[in-house]
């Protein structure tokens, strides 16, 4: 009986953690869109805080810049949520003094996230405790905003529950803070119009790197939800890129495949874990649920202003040339070439790898499958390129 209670408690905790991460992930995706569309620094700061509060469900979010005045004060520059004069009363500083230092000052001084698990019971927070508790703040996290190695401010988030920030959620919020920092720096550089062409390219590279980092976090969340397919997205992506190169596709098309492939199963976050990890064949109803993941992925990605048609590729990667695929039943030229390439790679990797309900079938069986259905289900050029890579050039899947 005790074991059952412990199991139920653990499952409840796991479900809560996944729900929290899902909210944080959605906030991260929306923040990327806000970053792409931002033109003014103040608007960006307030928009990011608004997304954090409204999408992720936190009590308060605010951004403070580290001033170089005598008191080394932290100046609020953007906020959203229930604040009610709190920022005026707490007089936050990042100076190293004999007085207790809260998480914000600590984050700015150390350049590392600082978490207050239970504001009401931590002596360190005594100078601010009364005002915080009065407004329903039970825990908080301060995330440094950096320009290279220099910390210029902090993103501060307050939750209404104690111990609200687990490790997975912290990783997502760190990524969000990094994206915000890059956005602030980029807007400053662009508004000043003083950077050289080289500096402009460097800034854009940083923004693209931030987007790439976000994609990696998204990828890790999918794999955490479905441990049996750990590495599947990366292996499928690597094979798809190799196929695309063998076919002679353009660098833009290859980049699109790389980006879409690395998150093509993002829609699986909406599918119950017990279905994804089921050790027996799926029922018809369960398979119908699985078939929704391309559309869920599309809905998550469609409003992000990627340089490529990433959302459409994710939506179409299970379509087949004869119209028997899903979710739209597209045919031949209706399917993007990038999705057709990814579809071949996805099938070959899946058949070559272990699944909960069956052992790996191996590359030989996988190649037989795509050759048998070449021109019917699968893009002929992609099939030929895949067979050549594996059978003739000795392509091997990387281990992740």
Widest β-sheet, arrangement of strands: 2-1-5-4-3
Please tell me the overall pLDDT.
Answer: 84
Shape category: elongated
CATH topology title of the largest domain: Beta-Lactamase
Number of strand elements: 5
Work out the count of structural domains: 2
Note the quaternary state here. single chain
Number of helix segments? 16
Q: What is the H/E order?
A: HHEEHHEHEEHHHHHHHHHHH
Sheet-strand content, in percent, reads: 5-15%
Q: Give the name of the CATH architecture of the largest domain.
A: 2-Layer Sandwich
Structural class: alpha+beta
Largest sheet: 5 strands, antiparallel
Low-confidence stretches: 4-16
CATH class of the largest domain: Alpha Beta
Name of the CATH superfamily of the largest domain: GAF domain
Rg:
24 Å
Textual characterization of the structure:
By secondary structure, the protein is of the alpha+beta class. It folds into 2 domains: about 200 residues, GAF domain (Beta-Lactamase), CATH 3.30.450.40; about 170 residues, Orthogonal Bundle (Hypothetical protein af1432). It has 16 helices and 5 strands. Strands 2-1-5-4-3 form a 5-stranded antiparallel sheet, sandwiched between helices. β1 and β2 form a beta hairpin. The longest helix is centred in the first third of the chain and has 36 residues. The protein starts with a helix and ends in an 8-residue tail after the last helix. About 5% of the residues have low confidence.
What is this structure, in a nutshell?
This protein has about 400 residues and is α+β, with helices and mostly antiparallel strands.
